[in-house]
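Support reply, case 0932

Customer input (verbatim):
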Amino acid sequence: MDPASLLHPDAFLSPLAIDEAVHRALDEDLGRAGDVTSIATIPEDTPARAILVARQAGVISGLPLAVATFRKLSPDIRIEAHARDGAVVAKGLHVLTINGPARAVLAAERTAINFVGRLSGIATLTADYVRHTAGTKLRICCTRKTTPGLRALEKYAIRCGGGFNHRFGLDDAILIKDNHIAVAGGVRPVLERARNSAGHLVKIEIEVDTLAQLREVLDTGLADVVLLDNMDIPTLTEAVKLAQGRVVLEASGGVTQSSIARIAATGVDYASSGALTHSAPNLDVALDIEV
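Our regenerated output:
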């Protein structure tokens, strides 16, 4: 089975990123001697049939990585998929059926489960945020608060859950934060420097903490997006009135499952939450051997 066939249809995850992540994770787990338990207890030619099961309901993500993990350890492993990334799965659903050499199946088990559990947890939490914004124009975004080395995977999981990606790194777009403003000497100077430096395809976003700063940004006419940092609901509502559609507005800070519906109702365009990646609980998945 080609892992790419299980990718979310509206999201991209490079096959190189999949291969690199799987290689790194297996190298970490197998070390220098491999799975010494399976080598010691399972005859080399023993076959196994295993089922990857969702033990709780959620949105599945990471199946291409699970498939790539099993196939990396044995090209003789055959896998049948019963879902693809982005699907809503019920508790008890058989997600993958794996047939092949028992030693390879058992050696790949934990790494495959780690990928699917982690990414499905992010996708499931994102989907819950998105559900709370139904009927509004708000788009839910992630941040760069990701697990080091796993950003591409975790941002892919956001897409599986119906969310959208913020920048992937410092090289994606210009995002001027409060410390940039302080060092550069104020809102206008920092925006003027950014606009003089930016290419015609580069967006400029600036963070503001107050409505006074927002007015200053709007007066310059130099920003494309304004990040409204840690503003309460009445202030966000007023910010939307002030902007009058002249810039894209993004709410950030304090974006939680309990607040997202009220944030969406203010009329801002985006809301970004680091919790989608740094605080998402794993979705409980398991690998059951059929004897």
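We compared this against your earlier run and they match. Two observations from our side: Residues 233 and 263 are 6 Å apart (CA to CA). The domain at 3-123+280-290 is CATH 3.90.1170.20 (Aldehyde Oxidoreductase; domain 3). Please reopen the case if you see a mismatch on your end.
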